[in-house]
Amino acid sequence: MSTAKRMDLLGSETAFAVSAEAASLASKGTKIYPFHLGDINLPTPISVIKAAQVGIDNGKTGYCPAPGIPELREALAKDVGSARGLDYGLNNVSIQPGGKPSIGKYIAAMMEKEDIVLYPNPGYPIYESQIEFYGGIACPYGYINTPDGLRLDFDTIENGIKKGAKHIFYNNYNNPTGASSPDKEMERLAKLVIDNDMFLISDDAYFDTLYEGNPKSIASLPGMYDRTLTMYTFSKKFAMTGWRLGGAIGPEKIIEQITRLNVNMESCTTHFVQYAGVAGLKAPKEETQEILDELRGRRDMLVEILNRIDGVEVHSPEAGFYVFPKITELMKDCGFSDPEEFRKIVLKETGVSFCGRHHFGRPLENETDYYIRLAFSGIDKMDLEEGMQLLNLWINKRRN
Fold first, then answer.
1. 3-state class (DSSP) for residue 116
2. What residues have CB less than 8 Å from 316, skipping those under 6 apart?
3. How far is it, in rounded angstroms, from Cα 119 to Cα 393?
4. Which of 6, 123, 280, 358 has the fewest CB atoms found within 10 Å of its own CB?
C-alpha cells in the first residue's frame, strides 16, 4: 500500500531531529549541553499540579465539551482579553490540546486550496508545513537585521499581498529569532491587513514571557479585533510543555469552525488537564514569576557570553526562550561554509547542541548571513556557562 501523495507535502519540526541526534550521542557517554529544543526544565507550578490531581480524584477523566469546559473558556477569555484590553467571552474560545493545533485547524477551516498564505521565515516550521499539506501556497516573509534588532521585511510582505495573499501568520516575540515589533511596525502591519481585507493569525506563544515592560498584541489595534485569531499556549508561562493545553481565541464564526474540527480530530482536550489550566490562570503571580526570573537570568548570561566571542553578533530578546546570533564571520574564521556541517561538528566535538537557521524554514533567496538558534529554557545556568566555555575553547582552537 502506498502513502498518500499529500504526505510528501508535510514538513516537520526539525528541532526534534537535532534532539534525537543529541540523545544518540548522550547514550554513548557524551555530555550534552541542550540548547536545541525549546522545552523547559523548570517545574510546573504546584497549584497547577494539585488541580490536575483533584480533577482525577473527582472523576474528570471522561469526555467533556468539544470547545472545552466552560470554566476554562471563561477564565482564558478573561485572561487574554484583559491583557490586551479586549472583550472576549466564552464563545470566543476553543480549547486545544496544545498551542500547535490552532495552526492546522485555522488553515483547514478557512483556507481554500491554492490560497496564498504569508508566514514568517525564519519562523516556526509548522506554519509552512500545514499550509502546504492542506494545498495552500506558502509565501514566506523575512526579517532585516538592524542595530535595534531584527525587523519585519515589509517588501516581502507587500509582494505577497500583491500576489493575492489573504491570510498572514504573525509571531511577535518570534521563534526562533526573538524579534519583536515596535509600535510603528505593528501598526504598519495592521494597516496592511485592514486595507487589503486580510485575516491575521497571531501566534502569542511567548506573549506572557516578556522580561521587561508590557507585552503588545496586534489584536488590540483599531480594526483588528475581528481580523485576528490569537493562538494561546499554557506551555511557556506555566512550564507545561508536556501537558498539551492551549486555546484559540477570536471571532465567534471562526471559533465555531475550529471547534467542529475538535470534534473530528480529538473529540476534546484532556478533561482533568483543563482544570489544571483554570488553576494556572488563577494562580498567584509569584508562581509564574519564579519561572520568568530564572529564564531572564539565563538569557542575560547567554547574551553576555556570546557578545564576548569575536565574530558573533547577538540581540537580547525581549521575550521568549531563544537567542539568534549571527555567526557569518565566526564560520568563516573557523573554516566553514556549510551551517549544517558546522552544527554537527560542534555537537560531536563539544556536546553543545543547537539548531541552525535552516531548521526554521527554507532560507530565502536574498539571505547572505548565517544564524543559529540557542534555546536557554532547558539548560540551567551552570551547564549553560560550562557549555559556552567549551564552545569558546573549540572556536579558539579552530582559529589557531
1. strand
2. 178, 299, 300, 303, 323
3. 38
4. 6
What are the residue ranges spanned by the domains of the chain? 5-43+286-399, 62-283
Residue 342 to residue 354: CA distance in whole angstroms = 11
Q: Measure Cα distances from 334 to 302, 314, 328, 331 in Å.
A: 21, 18, 10, 5
> Which residue has cell 553543545?
352
Closest to 95 in 3D by CA, of 271, 281, 327, 294: 271
CA distance 64 to 234: 19
What CATH architecture applies to the domain 5-43+286-399?
Answer: Alpha-Beta Complex (3.90)
Q: Which residues pair with 230 in a beta bridge?
A: 202, 249
| Mean pLDDT for the chain overall | 95
Whether residue 272 contacts residue 55, with contact meaning beta carbons closer than 8 Å, is answered with yes
Q: How far apart are CA 381 and CA 294, in angstroms?
A: 9
> For 304, phi and psi rounded to 5 degrees?
-60, -45
Phi/psi zone of residue 91: left (φ > 0), alpha (ψ -120 to 50 degrees), beta?
alpha
What values do phi and psi take at 123, rounded to 5? -170, -175
pLDDT of residue 399: 83
Q: What is the pTM of this model?
A: 0.94
Between CA 82 and CA 387, with CA 211 as vertex, the angle to 5 degrees is 145
Closest CA to 67 of 276, 263, 201, 203: 263
Q: Helix, strand or coil for residue 58?
A: coil
Q: How far apart are CA 250 and CA 87, in angstroms?
A: 10
Q: Which amino acid is it at 97?
A: P
Judge contact between 269 and 69, C-beta under 8 A.
Answer: no
- Residues 241-262 have a mean pLDDT of 97
Q: Cell 502569542 sits at which residue?
A: 204
| CATH class as words, domain 62-283 | alpha beta
Instruction: Express each pLDDT in 295-313 by its tens digit.
Output: 999 999 999 999 999 999 9
Are the C-beta atoms of 172 and 202 separated by less than 8 Å? yes
